[in-house]
Amino acid sequence: MQSDPSDPKPVKPQGCSNFKLRQLLRRVGQRFDAELAKSGLKTTQYSLLSHVLKLGPIRPGDLALAMTMDASTLTRNLQPLVQAGWVALGPGADGRSRLVSLTDAGRAKRADAQPHWRAAQEGLNQRLGVERVLALHALIDDSLELLAALPAGEHHA
Question: Domain span at residue 82?
Fold first, then answer.
């Protein structure tokens, strides 16, 4: 029996979306990690320094929320930056709260790493093409917005 071309079957994604995204993240991450290592930073550390520079002084919970990261992961990732003297944890508005801020050494470290980050980003733009990177960013932003609208753990069949 031949299939009727006027009745196309719905196309479904093949494979695991989570696995494919992790593959892409590993490939992109390897390129950024290799470039940022030249400044002595990991990609996560550069990202944290950049977010604190942009948003700080900021409460740790608000920083975790802005970075879509859970609080314990943020605390673990902040520790080496505090120990290096790049980030300071100071008192907040009341005795129970704290604020994360960048130190002068942290600003200098981020400034030192920024050309390496830029080289990694430009290398990715060149390898994939600017149009594809722009489309990827738009798809990621749209997907994040749609997923944020779903309560955690909820999924549709």
Answer: 27-148
DSSP symbols for 71-135: HHHHHHHHHHHHHTTSEEEEE-SSTT-EEEEE-HHHHHHHHHHHHHHHHHHHHHHHHH-HHHHHH
- 25-79 pLDDT per residue, tens: 999 999 999 999 999 999 999 999 999 999 989 999 999 999 989 989 999 999 9
Rounded to an integer, what distance in angstroms lies between the CA atom of residue 116 and that of residue 110?
Answer: 10
Which residues face 88 on adjacent strands? 101
In a domain, 138, yes or no: yes
The total of other beta-carbon atoms located within 10 Å of residue 96's CB is 7
Domain-located, residue 16: no
Residue 97 CB coordination number (10 Å): 11
Look up the pTM and report it. Answer: 0.80
45: nearest Cα among 121, 106, 97, 126 = 106
Average pLDDT, the chain: 89
CATH number of the structural domain spanning residue 138 = 1.10.10.10
Cβ contacts of residue 43 below 8 Å, gap of 6+? 29, 32, 33, 36
